[in-house]
Amino acid sequence: MSDAKASRSPTRSTLKLGMAQMCSSNTHQRNIETLEALAEEAHRAGVELLALPEASGLLNRDVAAARLQVTDEANDPFLAVARRLAAQYGIWIHTGSTPLSRGKEPRFSNSSHLIDPSGALNTRYDKIHLFDVNLPDHPPSRESDRYAPGGQAVLAHTPWGSFGMSVCYDLRFPHLYRDYAKAGANVLFIPSAFAMATGVAHWETLLRARAIENGCFVVAAAQCGKHDDGRETWGQSMIIDPWGKVLVDMEKHIGLSIAELDLTCVATTRASIPSLANERAYSFGADQHETKSVSAA
């Protein structure tokens, strides 16, 4: 697990968090305009950290058109503006994710960044698990055709403690979040652009499960609505506390929602149900009861 270069000792026990629900466009510029408005609103409200959804910088499934816009981390226009706004307003910005080029690799990375109030890139995480699925009555989805998977879990260290980084389909792999919790994470970021069919069936259930089983806050900023590239996303951006209580449910609202997180309740919840401490190693044993087949006479 990769660690960011920052203090590991929490110095703040409350976090004023702004979470954005977006309907991102297939061009950087329109999404930059949205980001500028969100950051200004968050600043006026006294937000300390602004969390964005997956594909906040660019949502475009037309690979040829996207390739004309996508560039590397150093030159990405959305990241550049996010860094400027973080420094201008003195806030942290979690970018959710945006596609970046990977040198000679023909596929993009789905990259998430945490930017500190100086505008520096505190942490980068590349989405590990890619959405290659076969939903009933839908054409197959092959995110791996367009994106290359990341290979490192990343823990970001902040004045509020350690935050686990992930993106969307990672949500279905609970061992990732268990490892984050065991490494000291008190907040799990799960920015997403969930499909409609899986959103209605699984989104809230999976988010609440990740919060409850790990005793962590879950911050899940999401895409919502009908996008320029023709797809439709589920929305329902959520903030969930370590007991599984839904603090924020944005349903289909586009814009900013603000919540004050009391991070001391992470320790309180884990003391009440110490599943991390109670976890035991185990192995798979051989079947002790051999089953014999009996032939008919």
From TrEMBL:
Record-linked Gene3D superfamilies: Carbon-nitrogen hydrolase
Chain ranges passing through the membrane: none
Keyword Oxidoreductase part of the UniProt annotation: no
Keywords: Hydrolase
InterPro entries reported in the protein's UniProt record: C-N_Hydrolase, C-N_Hydrolase_sf, Nit1/2_C-N_Hydrolase, UPF0012_CS
GO molecular-function term, one example from the UniProt record: hydrolase activity, acting on carbon-nitrogen (but not peptide) bonds, in linear amides
SUPFAM superfamilies the UniProt entry points to: Carbon-nitrogen hydrolase (SSF56317)
Claim: Transcription is one of the keywords in the record: no
Domain CN hydrolase: 15-263
The family this protein is said to belong to: Belongs to the carbon-nitrogen hydrolase superfamily. NIT1/NIT2 family.
Protein name: Carbon-nitrogen hydrolase family protein
